[in-house]
Amino acid sequence: MITVSRRRFLKITGFGLGAAAAVSASEPLAKSAEYINAKTGKGKGIEKIPTTCDICFWKCGAIAYLKDGELWKIEGNPEDPLSNGRLCPRGTGGIGAHFDKDRLKSPLIRKNERGEDQWVAVTWDEALSYIAEKMNKIKAKYGPESVALFSHGIGGNFLKHTLKAYGSPNVAAPSFAQCRGPRDVGFELTFGEPVGSPERTDIENADCLVLIGSHLGENMHNTQVQEFSRFIENKGTLIVVDPRFSVAAGKAKYYLPIKPGTDTALILAWMNVIVSMGLYDKEYVEKYGFGFEQFSQLISLNTPEWAYIQTGIDPEIIRATAIEMAKNKPRTLVHPGRHTTWYGNDAQRSRAIALLNALLGSWGRKGGFFFPASLDIPNYPYPEYPHGERGKVDNPGKKYPFASETITTGIREATITGEPYPIKGWLVYATNLIQALPDREETIKAIQNLDLMVVVDVVPSEIAGWADVVLPEDTYLERFDDLSITPFKKPFISLRQPVISSPGDTKPNWWIARELAIKLGLGHYYPWTNIEEYFKKRLGAAGYSYDELKKKGILKGEETPIFFEDGIEPVFYTPSGKIEFYSPQLQAAGFSPVPEFEKPKENPPGYLRLIYGRSPVHTFSRTQSNHLLSDLYEENEVWVNTSVAMKYGYKSGDKIRLANTYGVKSEPVKVKVTERIRPDCVFLVHGFGQTSKMLKSTYKKGASDSLLLKNCSTDPLMGGTGLNNNFVTFEEA
Amino acid sequence: MSRLGMAIDTRKCVGCMDCVVACKTENNLPEGFDRDWITTEVSGSFPNLTMQIRTERCNHCSDTPCVSCCPTGASHIHDFGGVVLVDHDLCIGCKACVASCPYDARYIHPDGYADKCTFCIHRVENGEDPACVSVCPTYCMHFGDLDDPNSEVSKLVASRKSSVQHPAAGTKPNIFYLE
Ligand code: SF4
Question: pLDDT averaged over chain A?
Fold first, then answer.
């Protein structure tokens, strides 16, 4: 079975000269030096401008190359500790965002009903006045808390500031309840601190790495992939647990093809082996652990034989892998994952992963988890925000007692029910809620209850189609954003700055947020007029030079210890001040103090579990209209195991629809017949099957996994949505 | 004489296509065409599988059917490092070279000439690595002189198990895949 990525190449060369000639009319995707020289007749003039990538949220330091004033290419900034001078494929193709033919060009106000995609182009003044007027009405009638902001990435920082100044605490990102939330809560309950982003994992120094569903190499968070490669170079032992034979699985010493939803059983059995054979880090557990006795008793029945029944993994393999982990301790890293909202009981699974790491003594140790260092740059001295009577709307009565951030779906629910108080305005910054949230019709129902719906984005995303006002933002290549102060192995700060001007009437978010604040009568919250003034004030207060940052793109601080063995003080911010093997706070709240296995839902007859993941060349649904990236992967395919495909008579390339148990059907999608997946599930790359009519280049290409996600169970600890809990069958396209 | 080539570590390669997109921007390739690509080879049946992922391109062979078959001399071997190049002005787009290459490394550019990987000769002559090599986030690609026994590529090929693509075609390819 051989697959070649050269799709377009083969298709076009196959047609011969006639078809090829038709292509020649198209402009090149990116303008190279030769091209520009030939076109402009100008001499050589290369300008390099350091900036920070924004194709995902890793925030790699980059250097943009201009040739005679035209954007040519972008590379990693060698000074940057995240990219080490090398961007991931999405970052390398990032310049395609500037050339995107579908991008928004001017502010828009809707003409007809919401969602009909009929627009009038307006001026910035008209658009912002309209928004301010509506926001003031909402404030007068319902109170300022009734406007919520959904935002992803540092780009949204200034809108957050404006919304807080306006008086609302309701700011949420799907990165919590639809992504890394369960993991961060599970680790916080155990070690007193979340894993954070970038993950505090020291992959490169691990001797044994365990990936549970985490598909590094397809998921391209740059530094992790670079470290993963060094780990392979160092001949570390790799253990991969995944229902799908991922790229990482292809490099593993042990591949465990687990039954979806049973990971906790496997992790409990691993811990059972390590404890019962006395293989754990005794000194570490004794010194830092709390409740180990109760813990070991509670897991004593979770033997590999018991886990085999649940997971389908041979007990001897469970034992062998547990021994392998213990042999390499403390340099065994059981990776906490990132996107962990799978089955609706994910915080407890993440806690089990945290506990396994605790047994191996890897938290705070080299080859395990480090304590991130970051530069201390004070916030801008703004006036205090107003404090309303009403708290956040998303989690009334602390229904989800361990939610440590705002729950997007909680805001959505309040918008529908009006409880605990009405939400009447949504500001949506750079997050396509149509694909990011499950139960799409709930999102649309909530939007129908709004008096104001604003979307700020670079492209006309699907959520923009539901807005009253769409505000076009500069791409990251055309704008300044807030300072990026990333906690990592070395303390540093990086700057995103414009490298080229926008071809349309677009604006940077800081300008949008500031102008909106002025229109709302909140101008005193923006004592600066230009963002560079703001940078100078903040950096100056910490003794750094803005001019130097602008020139280099990166400023580094003194390296400090990041591991216990290098002298960092072991502190655990849990109630006991120790690593909580047994958690009294969970028990007090009515949850299992030690993770327990819950059986997943079984497949209904004739249905397969829908799982999803990443392509290395796309970030969610944000990048599909970037021609450099869509040229590499234009539409997703549904992965179907060979034996299943044979039963249905499908071959690779056949078009089908997926239908879930509620009768929701996907757009037509190609079948990828493969041995690389269990026969009881199917896999899609997330972010495709978009239905924004304005996003012409990607309209209805492939299938949307999120369209098929309905009635997802919710994590009782923290409100995360279980996104791998839907089952699909095949229908004719 | 030098013989430029690559040693590519397939254990490290994740097939992310960064090399493909870097080539596109560096060399201004038209939409729909690539000079390098990823091949994934899977064998076995689930779950007992093995998989090799390779980044592929022109092998800059030492025995070149694409040069011998060219009627105009457009396809030629460059003095510097034996790199196989196409002179766009001499090329008449007859596609003989496209057909002769066992690696399917060539295509006809929309402007009518045969095109393929140049090992980024414009960078290499300035002492830089090809764009694909220097972008790779897994550091799986190594570039250098295979005739120099002390070069990194020579040492890697000498010390590690490796293979070339289609050895039976007799082209003496200069890209080695480390296993
Ligand atoms: S990981 Fe890739 S997309 Fe994300 S910031 Fe880094 S280079 Fe950009």
Answer: 94
**Nearest residue to A191 (alpha-carbon basis) of A327, A289, A79:** A289
* pLDDT at position A248: 98
Q: CA-CA distance, B175 to B7, in Å (whole number)?
A: 6
**What CATH number does residue B9 fall under?**
3.30.70.20
Q: Among residues B49, B158, B171, which one has the least CA distance to residue B103?
A: B171
Q: What are the sequence ranges of the domains in chain A? A: 194-372+568-588, 608-732
Residue pair A316/A685 in contact (Cβ under 8 Å)? The answer is no
Q: What separation in angstroms does the CA of A600 have from each of A344, A346, A608, A661, A664?
A: 10, 12, 13, 16, 22
Q: Rounded to 5 degrees, what are φ and ψ at B11?
A: -70, -35
Nearest of A592, A609, A616, A629 to residue A716 by alpha carbon: A592
Rounded to the nearest whole angstrom, what is the distance from the C-alpha of residue A87 to the centroid of ligand 1?
6
Fold held by A608-732: Barwin-like endoglucanases (2.40.40)
User: Of A324, A387, A384, which Cα lies nearest the Cα of A356?
Assistant: A324
Give the pLDDT mean for B14-21. Answer: 98
Residue among A154, A222, A476, A626 to mutate when testing ligand 1 (max atoms within 8 A of CB): A222
Q: For residue range A134-178, list pLDDT tens digits in order.
A: 999 999 999 999 999 999 999 999 999 999 999 999 999 999 999
Distance CA A450, CA A462 (A): 17
CATH code at A194-372+568-588: 3.40.228.10
- Domain limits for position B53: 4-178
8 A C-beta contact, residue A624 and residue A690: yes
Total Cβ atoms within 10 A of residue A290: 20
- Rounded mean pLDDT of A457-474? 97
- Identity of the residue in A9, A20, A88 whose CB atom sits nearest the CB atom of B18: A88
Strand partners, A60: none
Predicted model pTM: 0.95
Q: Kindly tell me if the per-residue pLDDT of A37 is higher than 50.
A: no
Q: Is A674 on the interface with B (CB under 8 A)?
A: yes
Answer whether A4 sits within 8 Å of B39, measured CB to CB: yes
Please say whether the beta carbons of A249 and A242 come within 8 A.
Answer: yes
Q: How far is B110 from chain A (nearest CA, A)?
A: 5
Ligand 1: distance of its center to the CA of A92 in Å? 8
Q: Quick check: A24 and B138 CB within 8 A?
A: no
**How far is Cα B143 from Cα B164, in angstroms, rounded to an integer?**
15
Neighbours of A401 (CB within 10 A): 17
Ligand 1 pocket, A496 CB below 6 A? no
Q: Is the dihedral of CA A521, A525, A528, A529 positive or negative?
A: negative
